[in-house]
Amino acid sequence: MPKLSFKLNILAGLGLSLLTAPAAYADPLLDGGKLVLTNGISSIEGASGGGLASWATIAGMETDRGVGVSAHVTGIELSDYGWQSHGISVGIKDRLELSYARQNFDTRKVGAALGLGEGYRFNQDIFAAKVRLMGDTVYGSPLLPQISVGVQHKRSLDAAIVKAVGAAASEGTDFTASATKLFLSKSVLVNATARLTNANQFGLLGFGGANQTDRTLQFEGSVAYMLTPRLVVGGEYRTRPSNLAIAREDDAHDLFVAWAVTRNATVTAAYADVGSVATFDGQRGGLVSLQFAF
Amino acid sequence: MTFALAFALLAAQPVTAEPQHAAPQEDLSSVDWEKEFGVEKKVVDPVTGELPVDPYTQDPANAGATPFAGDGMAKAFGGQEGIRKIVGRLVDLSESDPRIAEIFKNQDLVRLRRTLFEQVCYILDAGCTYTGRDMKTAHKDLGTTRADLNALVENLQQAMREAKVPFAAQNRLLAKLAPMDKDVVER
After folding, report:
1. Contacts of residue A186 in chain B, CB cutoff 8 Å?
2. For A31, which residue in chain B has the nearest alpha carbon?
């Protein structure tokens, strides 16, 4: 009898502890378990990706059981202009990305030449969402990339000016579809993105114009080579519409180096060329971006 | 049964003085509790030092990847000796990695070291066959997550880096392992 009751005690005790014990291995909210650099860096529009292109990646260091956050600041020195952007992103379960970015475009001396005043700044807010539909950048079949679709709502803060230069609207929305895959056998990451957009100079000069009011299909391509798990070099190309009658817009491209200094900090340096901006041709120069991600 | 449960619940309280029930306790020290609870005992094989596993069909295809052709990859990893060191280091690192150490507790690490060595050696075409179980069976009930897998990958990268395996060759091995994620991640 004592033996039997002892057994029952243990069983009942186990039952009790199973009922009342908190989940022993509850996942932390910020699990930080993503492989380094597979969250991408923050593109100039705030969505995770390369510098110029939005990729299928989801921001933050979380995996499919947690939440991640990242913040970035980017500076670009062009021939005649200065660019500064910053933003924050939240990644939820490596599935949904929500981001906000602010772009500040300094016209410097060109501002005076354009009659805006020296150092006139164009500013823009970008609210974006991206959802991963299928696949994984690293795992699974090499034939199945990570595929995401996104929406980027852009609001120029210079409505009167952008309409004066011929833009049809001061607000616009881009739609993106991206496929990203790391081909481990070659240490090469490839991204391809299709974007429906009518943004002029990413939206800083408004949306649509005399040449074209509606969105057109544009392409963003990125190729990157992994030198180490934390060091990647690559290049990007992005086509853009030329909607405004008064100023031609060119395709943009860059060459970049991204270095994950730690699991949570990534520094990117790039040579970027955006062509002609507001009649001033040959706008190229250096980009530096710093991202913290958890 | 109701009475027994009530009694058991009462007795499960941390401290309860029961001076009335001062009957002499039966000596339970000699009781084989594993037998009482029907726990199946696993006996270590005296030759291999491994615990038995449920029967399965041996097939190199259980490795989950087709081997490389030629000896380039085997050389990059330092042959069987190099592979054994890398696999040993991977297990050592993971056993002491606070992110995933719990998964390795109470597991047959002797068998793990052997089968993992065979698997990598087989895939790298370094002159082994794989005699272990398939990935889904071998990872059954481990409760592994994507983050656990990522931690393991980082440990493997560290082990390969320490063994001076060229980075491109490291990635070529990872390319063979990456498609197995669905079988080794459980939740």
Report:
1. 171
2. B147
